[in-house]
Amino acid sequence: MAEALAPLTVFGKTEARLDRIGALSIAERPDIALASLAARRERLTSLEAAAPAVLGTALPGVSRVAGGTIRAFWTGPAQWLVEAPYDTHEDLAAVLKQNLGGDASITEQSDGWCAFDIEGDATIALLERLCAADTRAMTPGDVLRTTIEHMGCFLICEQAGHAFRLWTARSSALSLHHALTTVAAALP
Amino acid sequence: MLIPHPLLGPRDAQEFTYLGDAALIDRPDGLAADAAERFFDYGYLRDNPPGEHRELWFHEQGDRSWLVVTRNITTHEIVRVELARDVALARGRGR
Question: How many Å apart are CA A146 and CA A126, to the nearest integer?
């Protein structure tokens, strides 16, 4: 009998990685499903009308996040990434396709990305050493894409000045983790 | 250098890549009788005036939109930034 296949995290483990460095915690979040959502040509208005049935709220505008259990964040004009808990929404892309497939192109993204939740009073000190984003000015629900050590990342503000979520490509997640932990350890 | 993105506000130029003259938006008709000649001009000929210059920039490490940046290449002042999509639509392109 073959053993059941168990998914591995970015670090090749079965448990999510958690680093506590000083007043900071950097937590890997393998438990989030991700899908991309892009309005089809001339279908933006009908997509915007249909989206609240799935998100519980309107699609977020420029550089904003919106939703509840299923949450979307703006990535570009008429484009979003959609997050949901993996346990209950492993089929996130299929659910979106079923509800919005006529107006938008949807692709499964869960295994292409890696999320880190950064929390603590030193979060701003960490991020301002790593990227050019004005994280100090970001309010909860703000999102922007920037680079950290040449790696593209989405930066979502969860709690102003205190908690941020970072989405990065899974293929470079170890390098990003190295950058985060190295800089965190060097904070005064 | 900061580029004032029409949607996102001022963003570091490091996040952008540069393509070239915004005249590249006006791609010739590939089925025209003189298509070969027009594509030669389109591919190789560029005006290189001092002063204001319209250029295509790509916000690669941002929202991935193409911009038309009007920049004074003698003073480096950025005069105007538009979404390339809006410029193309205004010029009668389909998208």
Answer: 15
Number of structural domains (chain A) is: 2
Judge if A83 and A137 occupy the same domain: no
Q: How many CA atoms lie within 13 A of A138 on its CB side?
A: 28
Same domain for A75 and A167?
no
Cβ pairs bridging A and B (under 8 Å): 32
Instruction: Look at residues B12, B17, B10, B1 and name the one whose alpha carbon lies nearest to residue B57.
Output: B17
Is A152 at the interface with chain B, CB within 8 A? yes
Minimal C-alpha gap between B56 and chain A (Å): 17
- What is the model's pLDDT at position B47? 87
What CATH superfamily classification does B2-90 receive?
Folate-binding superfamily (3.30.2270.10)
Across the interface, of B7, B61, B83, the residue whose CB is closest to A146 is: B61
- DSSP, res B95: -
Q: Indicate if A24 and A116 belong to the same structural domain.
A: yes
In this complex, is the C-beta atom of A145 within 8 Å of any C-beta atom belonging to chain B? yes
Nearest-by-Cβ selection for A62 from B8, B14, B85: B8
Report how far residue A124's alpha carbon sits from residue A131's, in angstroms, rounded to the nearest whole number: 10
Is residue A67 located within the same domain as residue A49?
Answer: yes
Q: Domain of residue A52: give its range.
A: 32-111
Chain B partners of A63 at a C-beta cutoff of 8 Å? 7-8
Q: How confident is the model at residue A1 (pLDDT cuts 50, 70, 90)?
A: low
Is the ipTM value over 0.90, yes or no? no
pLDDT in tens, A17-70: 999 999 899 999 999 999 999 999 999 999 999 999 999 999 999 999 999 999
The residues of B whose Cβ lies within 8 A of any Cβ of A are 7-8, 12, 14-15, 61-65, 83, 85, 95
Closest C-alpha to A10, from A18, A22, A20, A2: A18
What are A56-106's pLDDT values in tens digits?
999 999 999 999 999 999 999 999 999 999 999 999 999 999 999 999 999
**How many angstroms separate the CA of residue A107 from the nearest CA in chain B?**
17
